[in-house]
Amino acid sequence: xxxxxxxxxxxxxxxxxxxxxxxxxxxxxxxxxxxxxxxxxxxxxxxxxxxxxxxxxxxxxxxxxxxxxxxxxxxxxxxxxxxxxxxxxxxxxxxxxxxxxxxxxxxxxxxxxxxxxxxxxxxxxxxxxxxxxxxxxxxxxxxxxxxxxxxxxxxxxxxxxxxxxxxxxxxxxxxxxxxxxxxxxxxxxxxxxxxxxxxxxxxxxxxxxxxxxxxxxxxxxxxxxxxxxxxxxxxxxxxxxxxxxxxxxxxxxxxxxxxxxxxxxxxxxxxxxxxxxxxxxxxxxxxxxxxxxxxxxxxxxxxxxxxxxxxxxxxxxxxxxxxxxxxxxxxxxxxxxxxxxxxxxxxxxxxxxxxxxxxxxxxxxxxxxxxxxxxxxxxxxxxxxxxxxxx
Length: 391
Known about the structure:
Elements: E1 2-5, E2 10-13, H1 20-25, H2 50-64, E3 72-75, H3 82-93, E4 102-108, H4 115-127, H5 138-151, E5 155-161, H6 163-168, H7 172-180, H8 182-185, E6 190-197, H9 201-204, H10 208-214, E7 217-220, H11 226-240, H12 248-261, H13 264-280, H14 288-307, H15 312-323, E8 328-329, H16 330-341, H17 345-357, E9 361-368, E10 372-379, H18 383-389
Parallel strand pairs: 3-6, 3-7, 4-5, 5-6
Antiparallel strand pairs: 1-2, 8-10, 9-10
Helix pairs in contact: 4-5, 7-10, 11-12, 11-13, 12-13, 12-14, 13-14, 15-16, 15-17, 15-18
């Protein structure tokens, strides 16, 4: 029996299990371009986000003419392409006339969440190096940054990714205010902020003076449909694997798992993990059992990645749903939730909507004899699985 060896382009006998050392040193691989499955990969062809890309470009366009860009609030559930969209546009700006006048910095607020840390990264983007970590007051860093911007007649565009975290750390108001008010201290300074968050409730948590200065254009990234996920994953498989490594039916299966969890990243990780498992089994193709094994291993990790970034209130509501009866009405659920937290129904509704967007819960409108219609809430993951990842 002969099998195609993708990496070598030759035929030889089917592989037999080898030693661990042999597996590490083997030249054969199912991967043509493994970087396609990396979390920070930016696709050349960015599928199903054309409208959002146009909206973001509309906000940046004034800066190419030397004018202040529009602030933007880029929001939507996790794994809907918000960060990738900004990376893609930053890449395309490299070759765009007028882009040299824009000082661009993309900050992950999960990693950098202090005021000094954020302005240190802005300082590096403008001045060319980080300020000393100690011994330099914030005012000096701030002044050096904006004096250089004004002297070179450049425009500052700051992307604050996962800014929900900055709000939880109680630095959001200060950071936004100091960036947006720079023109008051340094006349002629032009700045804009692109805030990437999960939901628009972020806006209502800002101080009034900051919100009135921010006034962003809202750009929504909806969850991907099952068909859109399939298109994206099929394209990744075509770019990342050698021909014949995976059938379209298995890509569709991977897409269905990703859609079930509302997380495109799960699908990308499953493709990569399935191929690694196939290689470990000395297989030249990804088979269904490889996908199932990869899914079994990643399920808990994926659930944890969805739950960990949730706010304290969102986790409280999710934990409550693990305790009450399946299919509880929204009214009864709110009674339990209000009794524990004292939060308003408006806040409860927003929290519930967020969990539904993340596909952690389903809501269904049902008819009850003699009592009209009611909305019932169902957990999507197993209660036991959720309780393992909830604090």
